[in-house]
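Subject — a protein and its fold

Tokens — whole-number codes for backbone shape
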Amino acid sequence: MLESEIWVEKYRPRTLDEVVGQDNIVQRLKGYVSRKNIPHLLFSGPPGTGKTASAIALTRDLFGDVWRDNFIEMNASDERGIDVVRHKIKEFARTAPIGGAPFKIIFLDEADALTADAQAALRRTMEMYSRICRFILSCNYVSRIIEPIQSRCAVFKFRPISEEAMKERLLEIAKNEGINLTDDGLDALIYVSGGDFRKAINALQGAAAFGERIDAESIFQITATARPEELKEILDLALNGNFLEARDKLEMLLVEYGMSGEDVVSQLFREIISSNFDERLKVVMIDKLGEVDFRLTEGSNERIQLDAYLAYLSTLYSRRKKEKE
């Protein structure tokens, strides 16, 4: 299957009506469109939940055909210093709108990457040119935006896309692209995406490149993600004292799927939370897993840390056995 376009862009919402899984936010934004006026906005939430799509769709609905002339998108993680605010942003903000539009819109993606000095400079710019320019800021962590900017914006908190909304849209895309997405393949997409719609669409397109029938196996392979039952088996083996067997199983997964240590830790966490283990056991397992995650972040050897975690789980078996005796 040859594709000349990335599906994420091909199916990007063009209007607010096409934004998926954020009904409450869409209704509030439509209210601004009906009044032809918006305040400064701050979109926060996990990746792939529609922040950028909503900003562009809002601009399209507000300005119609002249939206490109009155909209600029900047990624603050690329240009994050104070000079960008003082020059590039200010130059665009001070120019008059085009085509009869009441104001221009500056969209700052990943605004939480701006330095503290840049955010302080941006605060004053937002005030000085608010008559002819509005700002839409997008971030993953609203706590990294300074309070003066938060107080100047209407804050919209995006949540992970619900399973129902994601399934409906993915099935629609599969139908449009002429591919057969099986039920287990759809469930696998939901699992690997974790509420990130962009990740789900990219995984779907990647799997479609290998055939028109997409099942769970193809999704797990293309995303380098282990099956939940495989990780559950590793945990069960380790907790039953079978350290070497659990280690061999983990080694096979690392080789077969090409997973990193951080990937394994993230999936182990999800499996522990959703498992039927005793609650006290879950607490101990997650506490130790958090320590492993910290050590990996600090640069420790991932194989040693993962083996040490399985060894720790095996010692829990010995402790529980002694307690029963």
Observations:
- The CA atoms of residues 175 and 181 lie 9 Å apart.
- DSSP finds 15 helices and seven strands in the chain.
- The chain has a mean pLDDT of 88.
- The radius of gyration is 24 Å.
